[in-house]
Queue: 4 jobs
Job 1
Amino acid sequence: MKKKIIGIMVALALIGILAFQVAPALADAAGPLDHVVITPASATLLPADVQQFTAQGYDATNIAITGLTYTWGIVAGGGTISPTGLFTTGDTAGVYANTVQVSTTQSTITKTALASVTVTTEPQTEPAVKPNIKKLTGLFTSYLNNVGFENFNGGQWTVKENGAVNTYKAIPGVVKAVSATALTILANGQTVSTAFALPAGTTILPKDATLSVDDRVVVVTVNDQVKLVLKITAPSTTTGNMPPGLKKNGKERDDNKGTPPGWEKGKKNGWNKDDNTDTEDD
């Protein structure tokens, strides 16, 4: 009898422990879809400008619901929008209230959210933050040389500049789509592509480089605005420090001097040809 009582007590204790462990998980589980939030709720843009909108569905207690599919559309003009929420303004200035619409459905529940867009011909004031391009380029180039592009999953830094606190982000990835105003990359270690609006005058390095699908890049943003795109080029297949205008042409460097046969390095004037290169010992 005592054994039976002890067994019952142990069973009850185990049930209590399981209930204690499961209860928090149930408390955190999202309920039915209650509302959708669209970000940003409004945007002021120039003609032919772009803005990435995002959406998130929540239950009645504001717990985010995962796994939802969102459908984007325009209901009051002002531009066009892609299936991923990338809005492109038209050429006509004006205030387009509640024009960007997103909707999502969970079971039989459908919820929508709206955002407004103002298209203006007045240029927007440039943010005061201008990243030190030379410093950033050197930093990321050095880092990538050490860890390799594939092992770099990006980073985020909070920087104090002129009394303001600014957030720098570096997102490495492979280009999936690119236009004059937008860039989409598949970030390292991610399975979903990320779209960026490219403001006019975005710095793309190396200088005068063009971006194409499958290029490897690092996108640098300041306060979530793209400021710099670094194109990661493949390691050079040339011989490095060769004299200007001299090609390797299959010749190996001199074992002793570390220079191409028949050449030597001048003290000040760069590379100077050896005057005796045409003379060979018999």
Job 2
Amino acid sequence: MRESNTGTAARSGQWRLFRLGVWALVFLWAAPVEGQALTEIGVAPTDGTILGEVTDVDILPNGNFVVMDIQAATVYVFDPSGRQVHALGGSGEGPGEIQLSAEVEVGPDGDIMIVDARNHRMTRWARDGTLIGSTRFSQLIGSFPFWPHDLMWEGDVLVLKISGFMPDQPIEFYALPLTLDGTAKILVSLEKEEGPTCLFCAVTLGTSGELVVFRGDTLYQLHRLDSLGAVSATWSRSDLPAVRRSEEEIKQRRSDMSRRMGVESGTPGISDIPPFKTRFGPRSIDVDDAGRLWTAPRQAEGDGGSLDVFTPSGEYSHSIALGVPIKHIRIRGNYLVVATETPVGEPVVRLYRIDS
């Protein structure tokens, strides 16, 4: 029996409505987030270069991007197409060689600088790859710092973060002379326990050179610090509460550490168990030229990475899903570089344009 024309028309109308609904959902899902969207313009490497362990990234003024490979003890420079332009350093103690560096920074003129903790020095190259030279920490600070591990360079502000592992050793931030030929000045000294940040918590510089730090004893909270180390502004996600270790968890961690180190539980240092869980906080943070704070929160294994964007006044604005795990980010102008990996765990670096 044939359907009536009325029934056929009704089914056709329902099908058109269904298709319109599907396309509306696709459009909403694919539409860029209000405020910013990202357009991928390059991925590295594409020339056969094999990356080992990427610990930091940055962007040169000409659009090339810089990659710190701690495993290869090498600073790679790639063009936006992913082809290697320079390979700086290499393992060793000689001029321009590297032993242990996890941090790389690019200056406004394109100079590239690293912190080499094991060679006890800072090394600098020009943007064309020419070695400028190295300066020992003893010349800058007067002694060798226990663990220099974060370098921040914005405009004419160059800051080094130094941490110690013992309970009585503070976290210190030093302002370094741009030419590395003078004496560093201490900016802020912070206690690790219950302070505004923690040993390896993410840190960056704001548009005016102010420190922006992640607070370790909360699930998701960041602070801007004034010259005295006091909190002058806060960024947070109100929907994410603080996560602290219980007394039982702290006791268990002390026991585990004592067993692994083969010492008694009362040994000095073993009791220094932070009361907070930092693995839930931002993995990497940066501030763009407009003063917006971008964070890359840690994700559960298997989840795609996303970026959270906060307004200059501290309100959470929106999130941007990248769909890839995010290890480190850096923003320069309207470019964002992200250290990530392939589905099988191979390190890659992606370059994005920020579209407003």
Job 3
Amino acid sequence: MFDATTAGATWSESQLWHLIDERTKPDADTKAIDERIWSLFGSEWTVMATDLCGFSRRTSEFGIMHFLQVIQEFKKRVFPIVANYDGIVVKVEADSLILLFRTPQKALDCAIDMQRACDVLNVGRDPEFQILLCVGIGHGDVLRIGETDVFGHEVNGACNLGEDIAKAGEILLTGAALERLAESPGSTEPLDADVPGVTAAFRYLY
């Protein structure tokens, strides 16, 4: 199954792209192939996407060593929190994370603790060294490709919320994630924003 088009891929990635390649053929039974893909990789997860507000601008101003230092401090501060809530780190891309949780409640509780940890870290710091965290959370059926990637509408929704719409200190949820919360220690307000692929989105007030 491994070939030149999947060089360097994991076994799961190679399986996926082999099936996608089969799907492109003129006589492909796309329905059957899609069922195989969902059978192999489909599962229900809560997805969290995070970003650091203003990070690209600060990196451009203060240089790559500043970039590496802030990223390292960020990971050291939040990864233990993610582990405490049974989160899975799927992707680390510069200042952005993609995380998976089994329930929206665990993801939300983790996000609140992450935001509070960043607040504590930022006390007394110069602005260029502050970690200003933005969080988006979605929930639904996704394609999880081993430990390397995840695809789905709610993944896109979480990324749009966390990376493009959320401001520093905010936690934003898709409607699907909000509906599945087990408990609600805070309150929510609807977002006045058009989020691609998401029918409703909310700001969580904690």
Job 4
Amino acid sequence: MKSYYLGVDGGQSSTTALIADETGRVIGRGRGGPCNHVSTVEGREKFFSAVGSCLEQACQQAGLDASTVSFAAVCLGLSGGAEDKDAYARELIRSRRYKITHDAEIALAGATAGEPGIVVIAGTGSIAFGWNAKNETARAGGWGYIFGDEGGAFDLTKRALRAALAFEEGWGPETVLYRLLLAETGAASANQLMRRWYSAFDRSAVAAFAELVARAAEGKDAVALKILDEAAEFLTWYIQGVYQRLFTASEIVPVAHIGGVFQSAHLREKLTQNVLLAIGCPVGASRFSPVAGALLEALRLDGNRNQPFDPAEQ
């Protein structure tokens, strides 16, 4: 009887799933909406819909019956933590073995192919997570948009709007961010845009405007460059905090970056420079995606040492 493995990456903006056979070859893929909250009836409905839809799509592509399939092992990495979603995940998915964890852990598993190291994630929010050869783990950041998430997309947009407001009110330097924000949103003023975002608050929608900071920085806008430099500094502090808790001062481990804000070449370069100066470790892209990291963890949970292989990515 064949063994099948499932990896799921459940995030704030979308959910993805991969099914692999016992060789690690990906045979099914699925995609759904966000599944990061289950505290309300609506949140639970979204969770079941997103994960269920992913599973259905992946099983259909793999030639499996989603209503009857039982996996050898599954790993779900879920934004916002796993504790309140554990029972719902087990209700949706049949498996001999389960690993239900947070999204930073599967991101690291994918980033280093399961080896010791650190991953820094900067999407809508931000967090750094690492583990060492003793399987000890540490994290820094990930406190949410009110008390943290420095260097994430929402934070970049917030800083851009603050800079635009400062320029509009006459107490801040001129910045192209002012013109870009108004042009992209159709707002008549930065003040109007601020009030609009307050009244119709959607973190993901606001975070999407972070790419304007990268665009302005490419044009050498001094304010945008400063925002990105400060973001790189915050993210470096997160990485340094994780490193100091897990590794010796001379230990060289890979540091990987994941998330939309790293589409900015300036931010990537600044982060690489800062981390090299702070802890002497190289910074680079991840070896596998977070959902492939979840699949890798599912394989290892069953004692299977194969690595995920996705023909669609070759």
